[in-house]
Amino acid sequence: MSAPLFPLFAALCGRAVLVVGGGAVAQRKTQALLDAGARVRVGAPLLQPELAAWAERGLIEHLPGRFEPAWLDEIWLAVAATDDDAVNAAVAAAAEARRVWVNVVDDAEASSVHVPSRVQRGPLQVAISSGGGAPMLTRHLREQLETQLDDSLGELAELLGRERLRIRARYPALGARRRFFDRLLAGPVPALLRQRRGRAAQRAFEAELAGGERTRAGSVVLVGAGPGDPGLLTLRGLRALNEADVILHDRLVSAEVLRLARRDAERIEVGKQSGAHHTTQERIHELMLEHARAGKRVVRLKGGDPFVFGRGGEEIEVLRAHGIAYEVVPGITAALACAAYSGVPLTHRDHAQSVRLVTAHTKDADDDLDWVALAQEKQTLAVYMGVAGLQRLRDRLIAHGRAPDTPFALIENGSRAEQRTVVGTLAELPDAAQAHAVGSPALLILGEVAALAETLHWHGAAPLRYAPALAAAA
């Protein structure tokens, strides 16, 4: 077994580097070296168009012809990037003889330097290497890290770099300095940078630097979990779940989404069910305040999107009134996900020019919906109401002018493995839901576009069409 590689980062700014090869691979390597500030010489008989353009503009130096050992004079690093194994071997041998570090593309054994997979956020870089033995594994890990490391980490690294001397002067002892960084990184500064509030982040940093050791302040992130498919959770939502100390989650948040969360986070179900409110909204407010005041990072995890019939506005009003730091991470709301997963376009130039998102559950249970507007044609209704009240909905819409033969798609467990779609006409709606025992969570799409579910469906089983005669026989 070969010895492990010694990881390091090379300062190539202003230093001469040789790339042998004039094709696409050489161009890619040259770009990375230029980004690092290197003075790049590219040796090859011919250059592909972009490399040739760089040479013409003076960004690189072109050494025409076949490789010669003299090209390595005054070189700090060489890269062999040709499609000729003999040429690559010659570059490696000549570099070894001159004690010049060399990377031979796709040849780990011939290389004295390996170029790792890399994730970069400003000055912050994470490098991954398998020593050339498992490049697909390093690529896989890089892709995972790309999803987990927020772009704002670059700004955070720049801030800490600028303030490094001040931090060392304020906390000369290593232990105190470590505790300062623990507080800083768990405090409001990273969140403010994510929100693109640079000045506020600088003020928070100054307060932390001047404040000395103290208990950190807590915060709350409202995260939209989407309709159930964990693949629909946003990258920012995933990061918040991995940073959480406490997760207050709705009943309808799928187990698959919860499994993505930090394993040692405390999970508290605060779901509310129609007719059986296990946790009142006021109690949810109390829990958010209690845990945030204890210095914890709280995630309020809500199905769909927090600001679409999710009472997210009420919750951040409470947090703001009590001085608790918060942010909101949108989620894919049920109307968008259920429509997409059942093959129903919410708008279509032949059928619908507008969409209305509607809930039948108003705050005071008053019937204050604009039924005349809802009954208009050439629009799509996405109704968030589960399966309760379908008969009343049908009767009101027909009474206000909606055609009884308007198509509907009633989607149960949208985006999940157990998704079911029932289709029919408005007149059949309540009977169809009962005949197929549609349960919650379910979303109703009503309008001409709903008919497309039968031809455009792609996820799960084909839609179920209501058959009155069969239902009566049963």
Automatic annotation (TrEMBL):
SUPFAM superfamilies: NAD(P)-binding Rossmann-fold domains, Siroheme synthase middle domains-like, Tetrapyrrole methylase. S-adenosyl-L-methionine binds at residues 227, 303-305, 308, 333-334, 385, 414. The keyword Lyase applies. Coiled coil: none annotated. The active site is at 250 (proton acceptor), 272 (proton donor). Residues 121-147 form the Siroheme synthase central domain. Residues 220-429 form the Tetrapyrrole methylase domain. The keyword Phosphoprotein applies. Residues 218-474 are annotated as: Uroporphyrinogen-III C-methyltransferase. The modification Phosphoserine is found at residue 130. Then it catalyzes the NAD-dependent ring dehydrogenation of precorrin-2 to yield sirohydrochlorin. Finally, it catalyzes the ferrochelation of sirohydrochlorin to yield siroheme. This is Siroheme synthase. It comes from Lysobacter silvisoli. The lineage of its organism: Bacteria, Pseudomonadati, Pseudomonadota, Gammaproteobacteria, Lysobacterales.
